[in-house]
Every structure is written in structure tokens, then in C-alpha cells.
Design goal:
Blueprint: H1 3-9, H2 18-42, H3 45-49, H4 53-73, H5 77-99, H6 104-127, H7 129-157, H8 163-185, H9 190-214
Helix pairs in contact: 2-5, 2-9, 4-5, 5-9, 6-8, 6-9, 7-8, 8-9
Length: 215
């Protein structure tokens, strides 16, 4: 019996089918996206911009780390879901700041492309889970290298090269395939929804950046 599944659903594998589990993952993702959408609609980005940057990032990373700790360590679905929301809310603030600088039609285009790419990568993750499992380590190394390069460009050279956005898009496409494959192959927990949520949001933000430069 899968102990993780017993912890999170209080039963064995036989009680929840793969279809129902995927539905739960989908609904959890939709919940996060709806919360972000409502934050964009109702929170003035100028209010967020008035927060001192050091305080904002302390709160952002603190909230995210607390959320990740809760949904990874908790045996209770309600606590794990709380942890998921502690990740969703700070991401929503970032999304709010970013999309406020773009035309709404461009944001909708980025949403459409992100949705299509996400569905395609989920299909590939279902068909070729072993492939994505093999490249997971390479994806992590590539992402760390890109983050370092971006920080050097930002704080030392005061610039940003568009090619990095394309590289990050490819990395998070790989992560979506990996996390979806793992979600259906291993532990059936809310962790899978949280990982996919962060993959999809990062993919969306980079696609929006690419479209913004194009226009």
C-alpha cells in the first residue's frame, strides 16, 4: 500500500482512481489560478510597488518556503492545501506586478499559448515519463545556471538577454512533463499540484516577456 496515499486520503489506492486524482489535481490548479486572477483584478499594483523591495522579497520567500514546508511535510490534506495557498498568494503578487505592464490582449495571448503548451507537455509526460525522469537533473542544473546568469546581468551589467527567456521556457516545459509524469507514477499528494502550479506560472511569465518584446 502506498503510505503517502494513505496519509493524504486516509485509505488505500483502490479508493481513488487515476481519473479522480487527475481531477483533484486539475481543480487544485484551477483554484490557484482563480485566486491569482482575483488578486490581479482587486489589488492595485501600485500598492504592491510601494512595499520596500527588501521587505517584499523577505515576505515572498518566507511565505513560499512556509507553504512548501507545509505541503511537503503534512499528513493532512487541509494543511497541505493551506501550504499550497501560501505559495499561490505571493506568486499572485508577482503576477499582478508583471501583467500590469502589458496590454490585456497580450496577457490573454500569453495565457492561451501557456495553456496549449501545458496540455501538450502533460500529454508528453504521460506518454514518456521515463524520458522526463532522466532529464530532471539536467533541468535543475540548467535552471540554476540561468538564475545565476540573470542575476549577474541584472545587478552587474544592468541588462537582460531575451534568449534567456526562451531557455527558461524550454526548462519549464521539461519540468511540466516531469512533474506530470511523476504525479501519475508516484505519490498522489497535493505536492504534485503545487509543483505544476509553479511550473505553469513561470512558463506563463516567460512567454509574456517574449511576447512583450515582440510587440
Amino acid at each position: 500500500m502506498d503510505n503517502s496515499l494513505r496519509r493524504n486520503y486516509g485509505t488505500d489506492k483502490g479508493l481513488i482512481s487515476a481519473g479522480k486524482y487527475n481531477l483533484v489535481i486539475g481543480l487544485t490548479l484551477i483554484w490557484g489560478f482563480v485566486v491569482n486572477y482575483l488578486m490581479v483584478l482587486n489589488i492595485d499594483p501600485e500598492i504592491i510597488a510601494t512595499i520596500p523591495i527588501w521587505l517584499f522579497f523577505i515576505g515572498y520567500f518566507g511565505c513560499c518556503m512556509a507553504g512548501i514546508y507545509l505541503f511537503q511535510s503534512s499528513d493532512k490534506p487541509a494543511v497541505s492545501f493551506l501550504g499550497y495557498n501560501l505559495v499561490v498568494v505571493p506568486f499572485g503578487l508577482i503576477i499582478n506586478l508583471v501583467v500590469s505592464g502589458y496590454d490585456p490582449t497580450l496577457v490573454l495571448e500569453a495565457l492561451r499559448i501557456t495553456t496549449i503548451v501545458t496540455l501538450a507537455m502533460m500529454i508528453l509526460g504521460t506518454l514518456f515519463p521515463a524520458f522526463f525522469a532522466r532529464i530532471a537533473g539536467a533541468l535543475t542544473i540548467a535552471l540554476l545556471l540561468v538564475i545565476i546568469v540573470e542575476l549577474v546581468e541584472l545587478f552587474i551589467f544592468k541588462t537582460h538577454h531575451g534568449i534567456l527567456d526562451w531557455i527558461v521556457v524550454l526548462i519549464f516545459c521539461g519540468y511540466i512533463g516531469y512533474d506530470w509524469g511523476q504525479a501519475n507514477a508516484k505519490e498522489k499528494t497535493v505536492d504534485s499540484a503545487a509543483a505544476l502550479y509553479m511550473d505553469i506560472i513561470n512558463l506563463f511569465l516567460r512567454i509574456l516577456s517574449i511576447l512583450g518584446r515582440r510587440n
